[in-house]
Amino acid sequence: MDPNPSRQIVEPSGGVILRQLFDFDSGLSMEEHLQVYEDAKHRWTHCSLEEWQAGAEGVWMESSFFLLGADLSVTLELMGKFGDVMDYVKDHLHTKMSLYASLHSRVEEHKGTLGNRDKILQDVRERLVRQSGNVLGSGIAS
């Protein structure tokens, strides 16, 4: 034990170091970004399909993600690359959703066709039963 307690080395946590060096409170920053994330999550989970498709254009700009300590050009480059990835994902999802919508409409159309065929088969069955009764009934002496 050191007789002089003021000379003991205290290793601060990461948050304290950031606060001391850059006057930056990581907890406060996380809370702000977490709130932005939660708001965006709530918005996009409860929106309509049309709203989702229309709003996908500038979402990543709205969320205001900025890299700490990064050069502005690097930040803009990363934002551009992220935007390209998001555009690719959006296009891919749009293609898949269009395919699903097309498949869904074709299945519904085919269900209608099958319903019509079922009615025709039911009519034919009833006619066959009536005609078989006529054929069988004509051979029996009354």
What labels would you give this structure?
mainly alpha; about 140 residues; 2 domains; rod-shaped; 5 helices
Structure in words:
The protein is mostly helical and 142 residues long. It has two domains: 1-46, no CATH class; 66-142. Helices cover 75% and strands 0% of the residues. It is built from five helices and no strands. The chain has helices spanning 14-22, 26-45, 49-55, 59-62, 72-138. The relative contact order is 0.04.
Task: Describe the structure concisely for a colleague.
The protein is mainly alpha-helical. It has 5 helices and no strands.
* Gross morphology: rod-shaped
> Count of helices?
5
Largest sheet: none
Average pLDDT: 75
Question: Structural class of the secondary elements?
Answer: mainly alpha
The total tally of domains equals: 2
Name the beta content range: under 5%
Q: Give the N-to-C terminal Cα separation.
A: 123 Å
